[in-house]
Amino acid sequence: MKRDQHNNQKRNAILNKLLILVGVIIIGLVAFILGMQFVQPPAIPASSQSIPTTTRSSTSSQASTATSTTTELSSSTESSATLEETGVYAVDFPKGDVLMGENDSFKFAVTTYLANDSLVVSYTPKESHSQDAHNSETATLYPTTIPTTRISVVENGLTKDVKINTELKLPASDSSKPNLAFFQPFNGDDTKVYSYLNRGGNIVLAFSPNGEHGPYSTVVLQ
Predict the structure, then answer these.
(1) Local structure of residue 202 (DSSP, 8 states)
(2) Which of 12, 148, 180, 183 is 20 to 30 A from 139, alpha carbon to alpha carbon?
(3) Is 46 helix (H, G, I), strand (E, B) or coil?
(4) Pairing, β 106-112 against β 193-197
């Protein structure tokens, strides 16, 4: 009887030790798991990670498009300005030809030459019935490309603004400079004479107005 009781007490002691050991192991595992959760940062959902990437990509694309557009506009503006300054409105007079025109008071002739770029511009009052009349005025002028100038002209009774790249200038060193009478009907001085092409494709001479006030008077050449 005493032996059985002793055996039972021994088994109970072993069982208690096992239960304590299992409890210690469970407590250790729980403590380890909790500790790992505090140390490891929380996971970011996949959907949250993709949003900034898409936003950055979209922003970068918009910035690239805006830069490209600005560059193209700047390039186009610079190109247009360069063309305008290099004579896009310049007049090319035909060589070896005679162009005729008139205004209310005078008949005009512009003679060009094959050998050089000079122009002989002459006018005769309309009341002169003979081409051999000696009351015409003549000047030798040279077409010169200038920076773009905008002037107001009266052409065929209509006032409009035109862009000019060609000025007809007196030769710098030429003993055959015209008498002031050549300019008398226009401005009574060394009048500026410009030239441009109208919408019909005709070469037009434009003379500065009297006293340089008002629009330029014009002669359309044929």
Answers:
(1) -
(2) 148
(3) helix
(4) unpaired
Identify the burial level of 114 via C-beta atoms within 10 angstroms of its C-beta, where 0-12 means exposed, 13-18 middle and 19 or more buried: exposed
Tokens 């970011």 locate to 44
The SS3 assignment for 208 reads coil
Number of residues written out for the chain: 222
The whole-angstrom separation of Cα 210 and Cα 61 is: 60
Cβ density class 42-77: b for 16+ within 10 Å, e for less: eeeeeeeeeeeeeeeeeeeeeeeeeeeeeeeeeeee
Q: Residue 146: is its pLDDT beyond 50?
A: yes
Looking at the chain, the number of H-run helices and the number of E-run strands are: 2, 8
Q: How many CA atoms lie within 13 A of 100 on its CB side?
A: 2
Helix or strand (DSSP H, E) at 78 = helix 46-85
**Six token digits for residue 93:** 């007079």
Distances in Å between the Cα of 110 and the Cα atoms of 39, 97, 142, 168, 182 are 98, 8, 12, 12, 14
Q: What is the pLDDT of residues 66-87, one digit of tens each?
A: 555 555 555 555 544 444 455 7
In whole angstroms, give the CA distance from residue 94 to residue 117.
Answer: 10
Contact 144, 167 (CB under 8 A): yes
Which residue, among 85, 86, 88, 90, has the nearest Cα to 166 in the 3D structure?
A: 90
